[in-house]
Amino acid sequence: xxxxxxxxxxxxxxxxxxxxxxxxxxxxxxxxxxxxxxxxxxxxxxxxxxxxxxxxxxxxxxxxxxxxxxxxxxxxxxxxxxxxxxxxxxxxxxxxxxxxxxxxxxxxxxxxxxxxxxxxxxxxxxxxxxxxxxxxxxxxxxxxxxxxxxxxxxxxxxxxxxxxxxxxxxxxx
Length: 173
Ligand code: IMP
Ligand code: MG
Prior knowledge:
Strand content: 25-35%
Bound molecules: inosinic acid, magnesium ion
Structural class: alpha/beta
């Protein structure tokens, strides 16, 4: 059975503070469009984008799905919502909740490059560097974390825990 750790790994207050500095760095890059990977990135994207607060910055959501009811990612990454995207000649900021093995990010970057954007930069709230099995990296990272399964602030386990304001480690009991 899995349960939440006794204390949050990253508190809502710490997230708040980090997002301020992250947004400052992103503002300087003058992106045309944020592409956000649902579902895990929804709170991060909302909180970050309103800090960037640039009138002509567009937002679009895609869905990348590689997880079932497990804490291990499956090999097949399915991507939905690409149909009506206009990305040709655009400077894209791709946002996801967490960079783990990198399979999801790799699949997203490969697919998005087919839309002939000018550039694609990546931003994740959390980076588990030690888990990487692809050549993917994030250009902007909120927090580096250890190899632990985490939930809250948008991140889920089988769709539970997403609405918790802090980030928690999920532990086996
Ligand atoms: P990757 O393809 O292995 O890099 O996994 C990336 C995706 O798996 C993320 O977008 C998350 O949706 C999910 N994921 C990876 N690690 C965690 C975690 O610790 N908690 C919740 N979701 C995770
Ligand atoms: Mg995800």
